Amino acid sequence: MKKVLALILAVMMVFSVCAFASAEETYEFDITVWVAEEIKDLTMKQIEDFNANNEFGIKFNATVEPVSESEAATNMIVDVEAGGDIFCFAQDQFARLVQAGALAKLSPEAAEAAGAANTAGVVAAATSGDAMYAFPLTADNGYFMYYDKTVVPEEHIDSMEDIIADCEAAGKFFSFEMESSAWYLASFFFATGCESEWTTDEDGEFISVNDTFNSPNGLIAVKGMKKLVDSVSHNSSSAGSAFASGSAVVVTGTWDYNTVLDILGDNMGVADLPCFTVDGVQYHLGSYNGCKLMGIKPQVDEDKAAALELLGEYLTGEQCQLERFEERSWGPANLAAQGSEAVQANPGLVALNAQAPYSIPQGQIHGSWWDIAKVIGDDVKAAEDEAGLQTALDNYTAKIAALFTMTSDEKNAWTVIGTCNLTDGFFYTDYNNETRSNWTDDIPMVEEDGIWKTTQAYEMEIGVEFKVRQGRSWDNAFPADNFKVEEAGTYFITLDPATGAVELVAE
Amino acid sequence: MSEKSITASRRHMGLKAASRVSNTLIHILLTVISVIWLIPFVFILLQSFRVESTWQVGYVVPKTWGFANYINLFDSDFPRWYMNTFIVAVVTAVLQTVIVLCMSYTLSRFRFKGRKLLMRFMMILGMFPGMLTMIILYRVLSDLGMTQANAVPGLILVYIASSGMGYYVSKGFFDTIPKSLDEAARVDGATRFQVLKKIILPLSKPIVIYTILTAFMAPWGDYVFAQYVSMGTSAGKNVAVGMYGWLNKDQIASRYTMFCAGGVLVALPVTILFMCLQKYYVEGVTGGAVKG
């Protein structure tokens, strides 16, 4: 009897070892991948390449579904559980996806590798707080100018006024989407140095904005915009196919390259955006420089999560990005891929590069901003004089301010913001990791007997600058010029709102 | 006498001329309106045969005609979406018609406790927009495994689930059929079901047709709910959701004429159905209100 028992136990042990061993060796997962329809087959092939070549014996049985990058978030948010395990999305959906818990945080190693291999702007777009949540997929989501060489001579392409005159003379349209898209109309504001920078915390919540559209420079921008929208040749469109219906100039991106080439053939010209002139000063039109990202859904199974991260890393690596460029002309975010000869020679990407110095990376932007800002175009068109233009900007600012409806306590509270080089993780690190804080986040203060004081002491070096402000806005801020630390040390920061006196109190 | 008759006939002539003028004016107006109304349809039809380019252009009449757009449709997921839509619409049309007719017959002919209450309750329930229940319906379907690739049974379930509440029109029509007919049949030994089948239904052809048509149309053109249920899977989409995806900025240039061709194919069965059943349809909508 004992022998039989021993035998059974021994057999069981052998089995369990076998089972363990086999579980150890094969990682096989069923996954769903959401990509744009045009790269569906390519992605399938790339996943098979990964299956064949990875060193861990991971095998994915992938179902690749065509889901447009512009709709990924809408779909994911319906039901994260049923969403794709890996999905591609345009960067403007990033904050929503983080808030919905639809993106898994990248492991520090993966984040570091992806951060080093890709363009800084794209990496920033995939980062919320100080964590990276997605892999860079492309860096070509920007716009530039296509033009018909028979209508607009090459010597005119640097001046918006000349182009408008050419179009008017030829009875053709200058297509630039000003009436329904904030993405395009921001171009004028960036030209005059205006900015709209939003800050998110680690949960993807928007905490503050630095928006200077309503400023003297903003007024110059809308004056330039007025010149365009008032022209009979202006057409609010960003479709490359507009060349087939009377346009001589269209401002759009690389995705329309083949369409425009088909329509215009040898007459197609591509260039960076032109300059406009207000009061004798030239301003080069700016642009958004956006990207597409690839995210991974949070997983229950840790092995699967790790395997998916490897797959994501592979699919967004140099080789896969180059393959996408070769097959679909998607502009890579990968620095090495960007340097390749073929990419350097692509006319669309060349124009995008020419526009790059005037473009700003599209960071995290509040979802409501697009709707708030897009009406500026119509308001500007309707405006009859400078006061009307100013009203358009005032309306815009009022709506932006309403996004941050703070409680009265929050509005009254004083906070510190600056370049204090803190040793704890309180401030955002900037993406190059050179300085710890770059005027991006506020540190809280508490009130005691009418004096506001930081809740803890912070280590500061000489040259650190900061201000103390109320309600996280600049309406009330002390001191008038930045406070400069003259002696290194560990200090509390205090403020007496009655006198506006800011002091450092050694710990 | 003779004078009178002359003036009468003169007046008569005047009336005739006046009515001819007003008729002409009305017809001109109607022609203008119908031309305006038809332009988009003609436009889509013409664009669907344009093969020289696939994007939007500034002219209407194609330079080169061909069927390439229709052929290309069959290389895409379109046939799958079309089948999904067709299955959902046909099954819904059949089941919903059966349910609605049974419901109406019951409420029209039977007298039972709580009948009035039930009718009022359903009327109030029907006043809430169906969209309100979307999220909870999605959860239920998702737990039943009827979403994404299995969206077809899920959608059928949702469309027919509340169909009993759409009884008003047909109950109104049944009420106009004299009860004495039923009673005569009952006296001759017909069961309730036989009364419905052999007496009521043949007399209410228009309303049956109307019910079938409306039941078919709703799922045929649904977008919002179908989009939720088939989220993220091509295999579960219906035509409206699937084709909407072609309007993305990176697809529109290569899919625009295909989109038009798809639109024509979507309109086809509905148009044929309406042309055949038009006569009954008009009778059906007004029938319940006029008779009796």
* Terminal Cα span of chain A: 77 Å
Dominant shape of chain B: globular
Assign a percent range to the helix content of chain B.
over 70%
Q: Determine the structural class of chain A based on helices, strands and strand pairing.
A: alpha+beta
Number of helices of chain A: 18
CATH class of chain B: Mainly Alpha
Count up the helices of chain B: 13
CATH superfamily of chain B: MetI-like
What is the level 1 CATH name of the largest domain in chain A?
Alpha Beta
Biggest beta sheet attributes of chain B: none
How much of the residues of chain B is beta strand, in percent? under 5%
Q: Which architecture of the largest domain in chain A does the CATH hierarchy give at level 2?
A: 3-Layer(aba) Sandwich
* Extended strand count of chain A: 25
Classify the beta-strand content of chain A into a percent band.
25-35%
Please mark out the parts of chain A with pLDDT under 50 across 5 or more consecutive residues, or reply none.
Answer: 17-23, 423-437
Strand tally of chain B, please?
0
Classify the helix fraction of chain A into a percent range.
Answer: 25-40%
Total domains of chain B = 1
Any idea what the CATH architecture of chain B is? Answer: Orthogonal Bundle
**Backbone CA Rg of chain B:** 26 Å
For the sheet with most strands of chain A, the description reads: 8 strands, antiparallel
Description of the molecule:
The complex is a heterodimer of chains A (507) and B (292). Chain A has 507 residues and is α+β, with helices and mostly antiparallel strands. Chain A folds into three domains: 25-139 and 290-333, 3-Layer(aba) Sandwich (D-Maltodextrin-Binding Protein, domain 2), CATH 3.40.190.10; 142-287 and 362-402, D-Maltodextrin-Binding Protein, domain 2 (3-Layer(aba) Sandwich); 408-506, Immunoglobulin-like, CATH 2.60.40. In chain A, 38% of the residues lie in helices and 26% in strands. In chain A, strands 18, 19, 20, 21, 22, 23, 24 and 25 form an eight-stranded antiparallel sheet that branches. In chain A, strands 1, 2, 3, 6, 16 and 17 form a six-stranded mixed sheet that branches. In chain A, helix 8 crosses helix 9 (216-230), helix 8 (182-191) packs across helix 16 (369-382) and helix 9 packs across helix 17 (386-403). The longest helix of chain A is centred in the first third of the chain and has 24 residues, at 2-25. The radius of gyration of chain A is 27 Å and the shape is flat. The model of chain A is unreliable at 17-23 and 423-437 (pLDDT under 50). Chain B has 292 residues and is an all-alpha fold. Chain B has one domain (76-290): MetI-like fold (Orthogonal Bundle), CATH 1.10.3720.10. Chain B is built from 13 helices and no strands. Helix content of chain B is 74%, strand content 0%. The longest helix of chain B is centred in the first third of the chain and has 47 residues, at 2-48. The interface between A and B is medium-sized, with 33 and 25 residues.
